[in-house]
Amino acid sequence: MRPLISVSGGCWSASGLIDARKMFVGGLGEASPEAKAAKNLQHFFTFVALKIVLAQLQVKH
């Protein structure tokens, strides 16, 4: 592993990439932001699917 170089308070690797391990923010036992986003997307797509089905059921021929 290459040594880290501190640049203006950030942690950068010698290759110039950000060391993601230094960017972790604990959530006090909560779900991760990714898990929250995944749950919200699932609820959103379920909502949209229900709206589509309800609209199809209400169409008069």
From TrEMBL:
<dbReference type="InterPro" id="IPR038052">
    <property type="entry name" value="Chaperonin_RbcX_sf"/>
</dbReference>
<protein>
    <submittedName>
        <fullName>Uncharacterized protein</fullName>
    </submittedName>
</protein>
